[in-house]
C-alpha cells in the first residue's frame, strides 16, 4: 500500500483532510465493526496538482492499478465516489454536488472515472456551494476518492436516524427501493418508506408505519462503460414491500448502531445502505445538516435555550457513552412525568436533554413553555427552579379559560400525586433493598448470564417512572408556596420559604450527614481508630483489617457503608468508584467533622423554621394560612422524596457499574478492551452485544478507545452556561431577571435558597476533596454540588454556588442544615479567590466582597 492508497484502517487514522469526509467515515465505521464493504481511498493529496480536463498523472494511475490488482478487482464492477475533505461533514454535506461513478469496470475505465470525479471539484455548482458555506473557493485540499466493489444489491436506499421532514428525534425513516439506491438518492424513483419509533426499554426501533411506493430502479447497463440506467420494476415485484417489517427493524438497529459508533451523543445521520440478499451493508454516512424543527407552535419563532442549570450540579463533567445512554432517557422521563400526571399531553419526539461537547444540557425553552402552558408557572419561576442564566421565553397573557384549565390540572395533579407519594413511603425502602440485594449477589460465571442480568437491571432503571416522578416533580408545592410567601412578604419570599424548609424530618442526604457526624464523635473517643485515621500512609482499602473487631467505630462504619456505600463523589457517573470501593473521601470527611455538634445544628434549623413561620403567618391573610401549612408539609415531603429517589436510582447505577466493570475485566486485553473501565465508553446495546458475542470485542475496544480520547478532549473545553439554537430571525429574548444578573465586580446577585446573613473568608473548591481543607465557618464557593459535598455543608458558614436552582441539591441540603445559601451566582468563580472576605446575604440573594479596611 502506497501513501496514496489508504485501506479503511489507514483512512480512519488519516482523517478527513487526507481521506475526505466520506472515506474517513467509512474507515471509522469499518474499524468500529459496522458492516461496511471492503474498499480503499485514493488520498486527497493525489489530486492537489490536478486541473480540470487534465489526464490523471501516471503515478496515480499506477497506484490505482496496483491497488485493484492486489485485491483481485481488475474485472469487478466498481463504485468510485467523491470524498472531498469537507464533504459529508456536520457543516456541509455536498450531497449531489460532486460526482460519483458506478458500475466502473476495468482499470482504464477506473482512471477515466477518477479524472471525472476530480473535475467535479471545479464545476460551477461546486464552487457556488463552497462559496455559500464560506469554504475556500479554489478547492484547496484536493479530492479524495473512495473505491469499492459494487454490491449486487437486491435492494438499497437511505436511512435517516431522525425524521428530517418533521424533526422528530424519536423516529427513524428508511427509504427502500429494488436494485441500486442511486435512483432514490437522485430523486428519480419513489420507493417504500418505513417509519420506526424508538422503544428505549427494548433498545430497539420497531416499525410503526409504512408506505409502498411505485418503483423504478437503477441497474448495470446492458453494454460496457460506466454508469447506471433506470428501468421499470416488474409489476409483481413493485407491488411487494421491499423490506419486511423484521428486515426494516434489523436495518434500523444497524443504522442506529452506525450513527452511535460515529457519535454517541445521538447526532442525526443520513446513511446509504444496500442489501445483497443475505445481509445489509452501510455504504455511506453523513451527518444530517438540515431538518425541520420539531417543537411547540408557540416556540417556533423563539430560540431554543439549552441550559446547564441544575444539570451542572449532578453532571459537572462530560458523560461517557453508557452514562449518556441511561441519562438521556432518565432526564426525559423526569421532566415529563409530573406534567403528564396533571393530564397535560406533552409533545412527543421533542428532545429535552442533549449533549453538547459531551456535557448534558436541558432545553430550558421547552421546559419553560410546558410549565406555563400546563400549570401556569411563569418562565421566571421555572428558571428559578431550573437554575442557569438562560433568558425567559415570551409567553402570551393567560386568559380566564387558561387559568381555569391550569387550576383543574393542578387539582388533578395533586389528586393523582398524593397516593403516589403515600405509596413511596413503602416503595422507596423496598426498591432500595432490591438494589442492595442485586449489589450483594454473586456474579454469574458466563458472560451471557452477566449480560442478561445487566439488561434486566438496565430495563428496571429505565422503567422506574415512579422514581423519575419523585425526582423530577418535586417543585409543584414549593413553587406555589414560594409564590404565596413572596406576595405576602415582597422581596423576602425566597429567603423566608427557604427558612421554612429547614424544619421537618431530615432527608436521606441529611441523615447521611448526621451519620457522618456520629461517626466523627465515635472516632474522637476511639484512640486506635483516631490514630489509624490520622496515619500519614493510611491504606483506605484495608480499613476493615486495620481496626480490631471490637471497635465501635469499625462496626458503625461498616453499617454506614451498607446503607450508603452505593453512593460516590459525583455519583451519577457510572465510571466513578462507589464509596464501598473507595472509602477514602468518607474517612477524610469523618476526620474533618470531629468537634461538630449535630444537636446544635438541629436546634439552629428548628429555630430558623419557627421564626420564619411566625413571620409568614402574620403576613398571610387568615384564610391562606391552612393552605400555606399544607403546602409547606407537601414541599418538605417532596424535597425528601426527591433525595430518597435519587439515592435509589444511584443504587441501581451502582449495581450496573459492578456488573459492567466485571464484563470489562473479562474482555480486557489486546483483542478486546484496552482497560476494564473502557466498558463505560460503550453504550448499553454494545455491552449487551459484547456479552452475547454478537459484536467483535476488538472493534468495540476501538470504539471505546476513540470515545475515551474524545471525552478527554471535551473535558479541556470551557463549560458554556447556555447554548442558543434557532436564533435566526427570532425577536430579542426577554432580559435575564435582575436576580440572575451580576451587579458589579465586587458584588454578585443570585437566587437565595436558604436564608440568613453571615460574613466569612471565601474558600473556593473545584472538587469536594479540595473542600475538605476549608476551615470551619468558611464560605464555600463552588460551581455546583452533589450529595458528596454534604460533609462540607456541615462546616460551612454559608454556601455560594455558581449554578443551581431552588430544587438543586445545594438548595435542599442547605435549607435542611440552616446554612445561608445563594445559588445561580454567575461569574462568582471568576471574581472570588480563596481568602477574600465575603458577606453573604441569603435574604436578598447578594454576595459582596468586603474591603479589608471596612470594619466588621
Please tell me the overall pLDDT: 88
* Strand fraction: 5-15%
* Low-confidence blocks of residues: 220-225, 729-743
What percent of the residues sit in helical stretches (DSSP H or I)? Answer: 40-55%
Largest beta-sheet characterization = 9 strands, mixed
- Total number of β-strand segments? 26
Helix count? Answer: 30
Shape: globular
Amino-to-carboxy terminus distance = 77 Å
Gyration radius (Cα, Å) is 31 Å
Q: What would you call the structural class? A: alpha+beta
Kindly report the spatial arrangement of strands forming the biggest sheet.
18-19-26-25-21-22-23-24-20
Keywords:
856 residues; alpha+beta; 26 strands
Topology:
Elements: E1 5-7, H1 8-14, H2 16-31, E2 40-42, H3 58-71, E3 77-83, E4 100-105, H4 107-119, H5 124-132, E5 144-149, E6 155-160, E7 171-178, H6 182-185, E8 192-197, E9 207-211, E10 216-219, E11 229-232, H7 235-238, H8 245-262, E12 269-275, E13 280-287, E14 304-307, H9 311-314, H10 321-341, E15 353-356, E16 359-363, H11 364-375, H12 379-386, H13 400-440, H14 447-462, H15 465-472, H16 476-488, H17 493-500, H18 508-524, H19 527-534, H20 543-546, H21 552-564, H22 584-592, H23 598-619, H24 625-666, H25 684-692, H26 697-715, E17 722-725, E18 742-744, E19 747-749, E20 751-754, E21 757-764, H27 768-771, E22 779-782, H28 790-793, E23 798-801, H29 809-817, E24 821-823, H30 828-831, E25 837-841, E26 846-849
Parallel strand pairs: 21-22, 22-23, 23-24
Antiparallel strand pairs: 1-2, 2-5, 3-4, 3-5, 6-7, 6-12, 7-8, 8-9, 10-11, 12-13, 14-16, 14-17, 15-16, 18-19, 19-26, 20-24, 21-25, 25-26
Helix pairs in contact: 1-2, 10-15, 11-12, 13-24, 14-24, 14-25, 15-24, 16-17, 16-24, 17-23, 18-21, 18-22
Amino acid at each position: 500500500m502506497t501513501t496514496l492508497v489508504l485501506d479503511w484502517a489507514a483512512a480512519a487514522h488519516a482523517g478527513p483532510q487526507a481521506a475526505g469526509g466520506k472515506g474517513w467515515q467509512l474507515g471509522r465505521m469499518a474499524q468500529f465493526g459496522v458492516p461496511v464493504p471492503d474498499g480503499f481511498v485514493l488520498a486527497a493529496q493525489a489530486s492537489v496538482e490536478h486541473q480540470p480536463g487534465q489526464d490523471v498523472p501516471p503515478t496515480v494511475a499506477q497506484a490505482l492499478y496496483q491497488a485493484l490488482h492486489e485485491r483481485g478487482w481488475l474485472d469487478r464492477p466498481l463504485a468510485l465516489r467523491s470524498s472531498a475533505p469537507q464533504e459529508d461533514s456536520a457543516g456541509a454535506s455536498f450531497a449531489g454536488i460532486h460526482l460519483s461513478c458506478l458500475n466502473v469496470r476495468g482499470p482504464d475505465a477506473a482512471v477515466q472515472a477518477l479524472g471525472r470525479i476530480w473535475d467535479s471539484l471545479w464545476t460551477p455548482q461546486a464552487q457556488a456551494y463552497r462559496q455559500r458555506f464560506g469554504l475556500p473557493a479554489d478547492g484547496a485540499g484536493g479530492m479524495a476518492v473512495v473505491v469499492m466493489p459494487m454490491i449486487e444489491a437486491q435492494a438499497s436506499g437511505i436511512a435517516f436516524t431522525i425524521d428530517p421532514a418533521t424533526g422528530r428525534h424519536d423516529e427513524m425513516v428508511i427509504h427502500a427501493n429494488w436494485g441500486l439506491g442511486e435512483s432514490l438518492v437522485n430523486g428519480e424513483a419513489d420507493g417504500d418508506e418505513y417509519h420506526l419509533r424508538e422503544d428505549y426499554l427494548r433498545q430497539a426501533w420497531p416499525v410503526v408505519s409504512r408506505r409502498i411506493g411505485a418503483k423504478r430502479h437503477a441497474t448495470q447497463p446492458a453494454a460496457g462503460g460506466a454508469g447506471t440506467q433506470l428501468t421499470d420494476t416488474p409489476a409483481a415485484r413493485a407491488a411487494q414491500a421491499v423490506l419486511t417489517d423484521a428486515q426494516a427493524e434489523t436495518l434500523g438497529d444497524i443504522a442506529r448502531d452506525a450513527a452511535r459508533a460515529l457519535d454517541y451523543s445521538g447526532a442525526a445521520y443520513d446513511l446509504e445502505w444496500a442489501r445483497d440478499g443475505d445481509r445489509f451493508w452501510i455504504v455511506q454516512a453523513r451527518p444530517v445538516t438540515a431538518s425541520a424543527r420539531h417543537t411547540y407552535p408557540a416556540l417556533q419563532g423563539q430560540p431554543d435555550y439549552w441550559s446547564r442549570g441544575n444539570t451542572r450540579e449532578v453532571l459537572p463533567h462530560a458523560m461517557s457513552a453508557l452514562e449518556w445512554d441511561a441519562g438521556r432517557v432518565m432526564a426525559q422521563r423526569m421532566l415529563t412525568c409530573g406534567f403528564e400526571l396533571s393530564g397535560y399531553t406533552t409533545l412527543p419526539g421533542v428532545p429535552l436533554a442533549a449533549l453538547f461537547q459531551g456535557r448534558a444540557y436541558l432545553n430550558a425553552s421547552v421546559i419553560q413553555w410546558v410549565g406555563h402552558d400546563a400549570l401556569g408557572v411563569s418562565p421566571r419561576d421555572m428558571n428559578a427552579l431550573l437554575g442557569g442564566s438562560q433568558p425567559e421565553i415570551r409567553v402570551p397573557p393567560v386568559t380566564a379559560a387558561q387559568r381555569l384549565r391550569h387550576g383543574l390540572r393542578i387539582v388533578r395533579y395533586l389528586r393523582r400525586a398524593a397516593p403516589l407519594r403515600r405509596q413511596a413511603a413503602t416503595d422507596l425502602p423496598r426498591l432500595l433493598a432490591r438494589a442492595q440485594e442485586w449489589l450483594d449477589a454473586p456474579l454469574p460465571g458466563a458472560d451471557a448470564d452477566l449480560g442478561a442480568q445487566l439488561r434486566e437491571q438496565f430495563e428496571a432503571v429505565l422503567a422506574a417512572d415512579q422514581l423519575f416522578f419523585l425526582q423530577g416533580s418535586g417543585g409543584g408545592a414549593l413553587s406555589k408556596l414560594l409564590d404565596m410567601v413572596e406576595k405576602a412578604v415582597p422581596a423576602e419570599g425566597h429567603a423566608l420559604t427557604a427558612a421554612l424548609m429547614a424544619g421537618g424530618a431530615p432527608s436521606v442526604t441529611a441523615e447521611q450527614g448526621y451519620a457522618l457526624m456520629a461517626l466523627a464523635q465515635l472516632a474522637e473517643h476511639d484512640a486506635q481508630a483516631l490514630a489509624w485515621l490520622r496515619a500519614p500512609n493510611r491504606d483506605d482499602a484495608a480499613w476493615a483489617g486495620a481496626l480490631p473487631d471490637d471497635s465501635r467505630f469499625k462496626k458503625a462504619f461498616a453499617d454506614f457503608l451498607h446503607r450508603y456505600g452505593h453512593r460516590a463523589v459525583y455519583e451519577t457517573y457510572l465510571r466513578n468508584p462507589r464509596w464501598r470501593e473507595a472509602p477514602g473521601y468518607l474517612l477524610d470527611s469523618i476526620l474533618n467533622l470531629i468537634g461538630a455538634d449535630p444537636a446544635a445544628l438541629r436546634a439552629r434549623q428548628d429555630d430558623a423554621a419557627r421564626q420564619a413561620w411566625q413571620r409568614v403567618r402574620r403576613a398571610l391573610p387568615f384564610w391562606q394560612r391552612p393552605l400555606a401549612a399544607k403546602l409547606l408539609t407537601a414541599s418538605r415531603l417532596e424535597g425528601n422524596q426527591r433525595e430518597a429517589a435519587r439515592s435509589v436510582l444511584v443504587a441501581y447505577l451502582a449495581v450496573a457499574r459492578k456488573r459492567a466493570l466485571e464484563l470489562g475485566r473479562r474482555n480486557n486485553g489486546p483483542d478486546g478492551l484496552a482497560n476494564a473501565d473502557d466498558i463505560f465508553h460503550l453504550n448499553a446495546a454494545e455491552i449487551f452485544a459484547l456479552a452475547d458475542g454478537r459484536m467483535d470485542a476488538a472493534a468495540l475496544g476501538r470504539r471505546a478507545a476513540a470515545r475515551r480520547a474524545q471525552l478527554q478532549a471535551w473535558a479541556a473545553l470551557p463549560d458554556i452556561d447556555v447554548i442558543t439554537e434557532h436564533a435566526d430571525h427570532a425577536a430579542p429574548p426577554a432580559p435575564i431577571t435582575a436576580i440572575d444578573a451580576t451587579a458589579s465586580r465586587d458584588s454578585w446577585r443570585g437566587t437565595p435558597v436558604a436564608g440568613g446573613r453571615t460574613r466569612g473568608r471565601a474558600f473556593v473548591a473545584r472538587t469536594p476533596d479540595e473542600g475538605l481543607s476549608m476551615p470551619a465557618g468558611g464560605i464555600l464557593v463552588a460551581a455546583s454540588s452533589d450529595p458528596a459535598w454534604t460533609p462540607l455543608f456541615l462546616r460551612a458558614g454559608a454556601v455560594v454556588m455558581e449554578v443551581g436552582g431552588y430544587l438543586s441539591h445545594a438548595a435542599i441540603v442547605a435549607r435542611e442544615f440552616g446554612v445561608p445559601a445563594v445559588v445561580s451566582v454567575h461569574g462568582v468563580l471568576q471574581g472570588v479567590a480563596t481568602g477574600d472576605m465575603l458577606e453573604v446575604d441569603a435574604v436578598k440573594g447578594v454576595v459582596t466582597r468586603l474591603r479589608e479596611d471596612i470594619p466588621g
